[in-house]
């Protein structure tokens, strides 16, 4: 603060010369290097003011501050394009999922450009780089024993010839009796639902009656990491960088012990699973989407690992 007051009193002539932008922006030895991302906005609709405020505006403000400080700054973002919600919206609009993503990615890019959000690169998750990096991370997890297989009961529609993701099922809520509950949540009572728990389930695609059938899926073996995670959390919490809310949520997850987390889905729209016996499945969007930060950077520069695998800078 004292330095800022001093420079303010001496006027603009006391400021250091502005950094000349490089393309691409890469970490520089001996300088402060700052990588900034925003939460990837979901692509199945037109962004509104809440998306701007809650998703990109704070990061943009910080990026502008960093550049004013002459810190070497890279600000990346992009649209999150896989998942059931995209497939559902595409069916509603009579488009393929790729056509829907192409349409709304352009809309998002135009809106953020109109607001002058200062991205160095605004990309998307439906790219060959995303497939390559996500599948590489999957193969590394598999080789190190952090994945397991298990059987789930899932609703299957024989008329459509497919297992139904949660949002492709409607039925009667088992808790409150609401007749139009979704396969993941009841909008009336707010409770989370497993689709196989619905009474009188219906396929949203053909209005047929699906039946519960077993299907094999892959899971992250989170219990195997629990001890190492708790030790790491204690060290990072001691540093004082976590908000009280973030600590509370994390402790809540750990309190009852971590459970295996399913990372595959019986869908057509998503990053393919590169493993025999599972090649008709795709990765669950919450396994896939966070990797979008890496792949979007990789689409910006083939030297992306200098940002993401470079903790010393």
TrEMBL record:
Q: InterPro entries, per this entry?
A: aa-tRNA-synth_I_CS, Met-tRNA_ligase_1, Met-tRNA_synth, Methionyl/Leucyl_tRNA_Synth, MetRS_core, MetRS_Zn, Rossmann-like_a/b/a_fold
- UniProt signal peptide: none
Q: Can you give the residue ranges of the Methionyl/Leucyl tRNA synthetase domain?
A: 34-311
Which reactions does this protein catalyse? tRNA(Met) + L-methionine + ATP = L-methionyl-tRNA(Met) + AMP + diphosphate
The coding gene here is Mars
Q: Name one Pfam family in it.
A: tRNA-synt_1g
Alphabetized, the UniProt keywords read:
Aminoacyl-tRNA synthetase, ATP-binding, Ligase, Nucleotide-binding, Protein biosynthesis
Q: Name one GO cellular component term.
A: cytosol
The record's family statement is: Belongs to the class-I aminoacyl-tRNA synthetase family.
Q: What is this protein called?
A: Methionine--tRNA ligase, cytoplasmic
* Lineage of origin: Eukaryota, Metazoa, Chordata, Craniata, Vertebrata
For this UniProt entry, the molecular function terms from Gene Ontology, in alphabetical order, are: ATP binding; methionine-tRNA ligase activity
GO annotation, biological process: methionyl-tRNA aminoacylation
Q: Which organism is it from?
A: Eulacestoma nigropectus (wattled ploughbill)
